[in-house]
Structures are given as structure tokens and as C-alpha cells.
Amino acid sequence: MTAISEQSPLILASTSRYRAELLRRLGVPFEQEAPGSDETPRSGEAPKELAQRLALAKAQAVAARHPQRWVLGSDQVCACGDELLGKPGDRQLAIGQLTRLSGNSARFFTAVALVQGASGTLYEALDLTTVHFRRLDAEEIERYVAAEPAFDCAGSFKSEGLGIALCEAIESRDQTGLVGLPLIAVRELLLRAGLALP
After folding, report:
1. Which of 38, 75, 90, 137 is flagged as catalytic?
2. pLDDT of residue 196
3. CATH for the 10-192 domain, from 3.90.950.10, 3.30.870.10, 2.60.40.1910, 3.40.50.12280
4. Calpha distance 168→194 (Å, rounded)
5. Which residues of 129-154 are buried (b: 16+ CB within 10 A; e: fewer)?
6. Where are the domains of the chain?
7. Is 151 helix (H, G, I), strand (E, B) or coil?
8. For 76-102, how does the pLDDT look when each residue is reduced to its tens digit (9 = 90+)?
9. What's this model's pTM, rounded to 2 decimal places?
């Protein structure tokens, strides 16, 4: 198996700037590539299974193009009760999501898959973070969306920014999981692939 190195860097199967910023913290050489995989949920698919399936699909899509390289895929699914909350994309949907989350809890399932196509090697992990939102009135939601339009974030808020003010409590094994890439799990997967980190 080809080791991760400057000559053969890890490929992050994502164009997300959030995931790239997090992965840089580990000091691992990497490149980014869009997976181009279908992210449509299947009928009746549970949030946990959806996150795991999509993380693996992203990694495998890129690994098929670079079979000798290690590829890291990740996906996050936000669920409030039985409702999936994706990236809102615009102000109106963001306000709707935050209204739904007001006084409720949301579970963020963040899955990672590390794949090397040529050897068929696969390592996977799943992180779960539960966010308890305080009761938010319409004015608070409007002010938040105006100040920090998190239209590209599931749940319409950024815990690493002003969005922390919307929360009552966060239950997490790894705070980076909520941002989009659980670095504790990623480090464990990279170690299994032969890359030791401090």
C-alpha cells in the first residue's frame, strides 16, 4: 500500500472549506477533489446510515480515479426528531430551520471513511453530537441570520462562531465533529493506515 506523503498526499473527497481548515490542523499533506457522488437520501434511510453511506460513497468515487492513493470521505447529517435538516441555501430556509430547532435538540451524525482503492482497504468511524437549542424568538433568529448567514451549514448555524449563542448545551466526544470533520476519529483512521501523528 502506498503511504501518505508529500509525494502521495491524502485526498480529501470534498470541496468544503470547513473540512479543509480542520484537516490542516493535523499537519497531514492533502489535496481536495470533488467526489461528484449522488447525495440523495433513500426512502426510510436513518440519519446515521445516510451519513455513513454518503461518506463511503464520496471516498470510493474519488478512490476509483486514484486507486493507489488514500482518500478520506466525510458526510454530516443533521436530524431534529425524524426530520432531516440539510444545508438551507438561503435566508428563508435558514429561518425555518432555526424556528424548528428553537427549544429542541438536534443530532449531528458525522461519518468518515478512509479508503485505498487498489488494496480494497477501508476504515470507518462515526461521530455523534447532540445540540440543545434554547428557545429562540423570531427577532433573535432574524438577528442571527443577518449577522452570520450560515446557509452552507446543516442546521443553519455555526457553533464555532456566533451560533454558539443559540445553544443551551452541546454533548460531544469531539467538538470538531460538529464543524464537519471529527479529527479524533480521523487521527485514529490515519494511524490504522500507517500514518502516526503526535
Report:
1. 75
2. 87
3. 3.90.950.10
4. 40
5. bebebeebeeeebeebbeebebeebb
6. 10-192
7. coil
8. 999 999 899 999 999 999 999 999 999
9. 0.94
Based on the number of CB atoms within 10 Å of its own CB, is 155 exposed (0-12), middle (13-18) or buried (19 or more)?
buried
Active-site annotation holds for 127: no
Could you tell me which residues are beta bridge partners of residue 72? Answer: 12, 114
CA distance 66 to 68: 6
Query: Alpha helix locations (H) across the chain?
Result: 17-24, 47-65, 91-101, 138-147, 175-179, 183-192
CA separation (Å) from 142 to 63, 88, 97, 137? Answer: 42, 15, 12, 9
Assess whether pLDDT exceeds 80 at residue 180: yes
pLDDT in tens, 13-31: 999 999 999 999 999 999 9
